[in-house]
Amino acid sequence: MTEVTQERILCPVCGGPVKVDQQDKVNRCEYCASPVLGPSQSRNCVNHPDVLAKEVCHVCGDLVCEDCMQKRVGEYGGKLLTIVNCEKASCIAESEWAKPLNEEYQKLANMDWADRIDNIILRVTGLGAIIMMVFELIFFLGVMFYHFLTPWSIPQVSIEFLGPEIMNPITILVLSIFGNLLAAILLQSALQVFVHERQLGAGITLLVILIIEVAYLIIRGLFFGLLTFPNPYFLPILIAAFLFGTILVFFGSLMAIYVGNKKRVQLKETREKLNLSIRDEIESLK
């Protein structure tokens, strides 16, 4: 018995192999979900056999011309995604999660110019936030180790309403948890700088949380008496790691604020231009 080998073609988008399940209809790439035409499929519109198709309906896979398609824009992963559906009621219903595309608005509000700088900002702020989280963990473990497992100990601080012996594992743990919480907020905000609409707010949040984190670290350092620590390496290494993470987050947040504000101005000007053009059209009809 001879084995039937299924035909495969390469996806034009990602280059992955696509199993040809349908010779005369659209096949989907299992790697990137892009539509791939069947080898014997007609390249003309399904509704107008004499017109070359321009797009593929993302729901049913039919090829459609400009007169038979509807373009929509939806958000996916923080970025705007353009999809196409044909005029069948079922396909329109499946696409209602996305908003109808205003092509003039889309053209004026296009932010492809920011893709490269957005990637740089995400990597800079993300790396800085990760370094801050790792620093907080090392800071906690280091203080616990040197206070309870070495001859050196943190000087006791007497606070009247807390008692004379407040330098204990619980105190160190509570103070460290708050530091790790600040670092986690930094990381969460760093992930938001990749979203156009949230970039400006995320940059401001990063800057504010960073200032709080730096101030909180100075307070903890003085509280734990790290300046009196006799080991010549522990404190300089901590300071170097913290400064490196701080510098990355600081410059990343400034870039996010600058680029985010530039996008805000672009969207504002786009809306003003569209409103002006609509008013001009109305006036011309009077």
Distinctive features:
three-stranded antiparallel beta sheet, elongated, 286 residues, 52% helix, 2 domains, 9 strands, mainly alpha, two-stranded antiparallel sheet
Whole-number tally of structural domains? 2
| Shape label | elongated
Low-confidence stretches: 157-164
**What is the mean pLDDT?**
80
Alpha carbon gap, first and last residue? 78 Å
Note the beta-strand portion.
Answer: 5-15%
Radius of gyration: 29 Å
Query: Which percent range fits the helix content?
Result: 40-55%
Helix and strand run:
EEEEEEEEHEHHHHH
Tally of strands = 9
Strand order of the largest sheet: 8-7-9
Main β sheet profile: 3 strands, antiparallel
Structural class: mainly alpha
How would you describe this protein?
The protein has helices at about 90-95, 105-110, 115-150, 170-190, 200-225, 235-285; strands at about 10, 15-20, 25-30, 35, 55, 65, 70-75, 80-85, 100. It has two domains: about 10-100, no CATH class; about 115-280, no CATH class. α3 runs antiparallel to α6, α4 (about 170-190) runs antiparallel to α5 (about 200-225) and α5 (about 200-225) packs antiparallel against α6. With about 290 residues, it is mainly α. Residues about 155-165 have low confidence and may be disordered. A three-stranded antiparallel sheet has the order 8-7-9, with no helix packed on it. Strands 1-2 form a two-stranded antiparallel sheet. A hairpin with a 6-residue loop joins β1 (about 10) and β2 (about 15-20).
